[in-house]
Design a protein that fits this description.
The chain is α+β, with helices and mostly antiparallel strands. The radius of gyration is 27 Å and the shape is elongated. A hairpin with a 5-residue loop joins strand 5 and strand 6. It is built from three helices and ten strands, in the order αββββββββββαα.
């Protein structure tokens, strides 16, 4: 009975600890205030404007331009990209599209969301969204799984009449992500996140040289890359072990029987 009480107390403690872990599985906080948000976009992968998750970025451009932004995404998170395009007062029907690429510049499929939308003639705005698959800490080389690192957003019009080319448009982009937790954990991790310049930086660190390093990406998640080995999977594994121990003790108590009756002598 004493062992049972001890295991019950341990199970209760693990149950109380599960509360904070569940509370941590929430959308990522804002990386910075909107007051410091970028007001322009890049025109290529190399000139993509860096934004943090939770940050609202705006830009002005012309119909037909390619607008690029970049943001960091770490393992165990499911990023969602939302874009709003403000169209001129007079325009024909236009089809806008948002694409997301990973650190290897591989186009990532949207799990759900309106990635492409057509704005009818005279429509003031068009809203787009793309929710990626959960970012994995490690993947096979032949797979196209999203991996930790820099992600690129490309916003452009894919179907527009010639008469509308060059008209001024406004764009607003916001990136958020949901923490999926231990259900997305895998047995492996990348040596370095897939961010521009990381290979050059690592080589320079190994050589211990004083030469300048090419670090093309200056953004990272608030809590750092691959923010730790801890996940709620450890907690649920421990709880499963305690439950298995309790089940074993209960099964033994039910099957061992009442033992030797007190009226029967030991040598009988």
């Amino acid at each position: 009975m004493r062992v049972t009480h001890v295991l019950s107390a341990a199970l209760l403690a693990l149950g109380l600890a599960a509360g904070p872990a569940a509370a941590d599985s929430s959308p990522s906080p804002s990386a910075s205030d909107d007051a410091a948000a970028p007001t322009e976009a890049g025109t290529s992968f190399r000139t993509a404007t860096e934004i943090g998750q939770g940050q609202r970025a705006t830009a002005s451009g012309s119909t037909g331009d390619y607008l690029y932004w970049s943001f960091p995404a770490d393992a165990g998170r499911r990023p969602t990209v939302r874009a709003t395009v403000k169209l001129p007062e007079s325009h024909a029907a236009e089809t806008w599209q948002i694409d997301v690429y990973d650190g290897l510049r591989r186009r990532q499929a949207c799990q759900y969301g309106a990635q492409t939308r057509t704005a009818a003639q005279g429509t003031a705005t068009v809203e787009l969204a793309c929710t990626l698959r959960t970012v994995r800490a490690w993947s096979e080389p032949w797979a196209n799984d999203p991996l930790p690192g820099t992600y690129y957003i490309r916003l452009t019009v894919v179907n527009v009449p010639t008469s509308d080319l060059g008209l001024t448009v406004g764009a607003e982009v916001r990136v958020g992500s949901e923490d999926i937790g231990g259900s997305a954990a895998v047995d492996g991790s990348l040596a370095e996140p897939l961010v521009p310049g990381i290979a050059v930086k690592s080589a320079s660190d190994d050589d211990s040289s004083d030469s300048a390093t090419a670090v093309l990406s200056s953004i990272e998640p608030d809590d750092g890359w691959a923010s730790g080995w801890w996940s709620d999977r450890w907690l649920w594994t421990a709880m499963g072990g305690v439950l298995a121990a309790l089940a074993g003790i209960g099964g033994y108590a039910l099957t061992r029987g009442p033992g030797r009756p007190s009226r029967v002598p030991p040598g009988a």
